């Protein structure tokens, strides 16, 4: 059994309403076999197994567990780096926790992954200042005869003012979606991008490896 085949056992299956009997082959894995394999894998490689389950979105608890195990591993090895060894004892665990979170997110992300918009923080709207023209009537609204009297205009009673207001506007960063893609902005997760200078020289599109992400797609 491959580890990549594990997520399908967590997906709901529709009942097969047919007259064909289920597979009774000795080589077919049962749920008991899968559970035993998971237990053995978790016992031998807890950090890697938790990271995989968290990456596949099977368990949010495993995401936290993988980050905790990465933090413990980082604390046990961080003294090998001079810059980290000089950190105060009360700050070092916090720094290792942040680094472990970034390491797990880098492992779990793909070109199709999305993250919360840092501009609106997932709320889809931001507060913006706008100027609106509003009309006021200090002496009351113009009488009816003002509309039909020659040389008299209703605008004589109007007073226009520019008022600054704080309103909710759609976030320009995520365009009101609340989340943005984590894919590379140059290659969009394809790993290759257009070489603009060479394309202008040759008069045709020139493709090269993405220089921003270096084929990591993120």
Automatic annotation (TrEMBL):
SUPFAM superfamilies: DnaJ/Hsp40 cysteine-rich domain. It comes from the Bacteria. One of its GO terms (molecular function) is DNA binding. The keyword Oxidoreductase does not apply. Gene3D superfamilies: 1.10.274.110. Keywords: DNA-binding, Transcription, Transcription regulation. One of its GO terms (biological process) is regulation of DNA-templated transcription. This is Phage antitermination protein. It comes from Escherichia coli.
């Amino acid at each position: 059994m491959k580890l990549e085949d594990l997520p399908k056992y967590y997906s709901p299956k529709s009942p097969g309403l047919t007259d064909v009997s289920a597979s009774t082959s000795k080589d077919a894995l049962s749920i008991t076999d899968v559970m035993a394999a998971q237990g053995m894998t978790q016992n031998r490689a807890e950090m890697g197994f938790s990271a995989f389950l968290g990456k596949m979105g099977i368990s949010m608890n495993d995401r936290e567990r993988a980050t905790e195990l990465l933090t413990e591993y980082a604390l046990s090895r961080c003294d090998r780096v001079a810059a980290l060894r000089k950190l105060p004892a009360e700050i070092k665990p916090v720094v290792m926790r942040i680094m472990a979170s970034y390491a797990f997110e880098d492992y779990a992300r793909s070109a199709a992954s999305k993250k919360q918009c840092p501009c609106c923080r997932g709320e889809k709207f931001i507060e913006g200042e706008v100027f609106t023209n509003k009309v006021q009537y200090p002496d009351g609204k113009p009488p009816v005869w003002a509309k039909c009297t020659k040389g008299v205009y209703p605008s004589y009673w109007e007073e226009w003012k520019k008022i600054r207001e704080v309103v909710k506007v759609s976030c320009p960063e995520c365009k009101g979606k609340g989340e943005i893609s984590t894919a590379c902005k140059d290659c969009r997760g394809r790993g290759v991008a257009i070489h603009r200078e060479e394309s202008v020289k040759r008069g045709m599109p020139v493709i090269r490896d993405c220089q921003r992400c270096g084929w990591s797609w993120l």
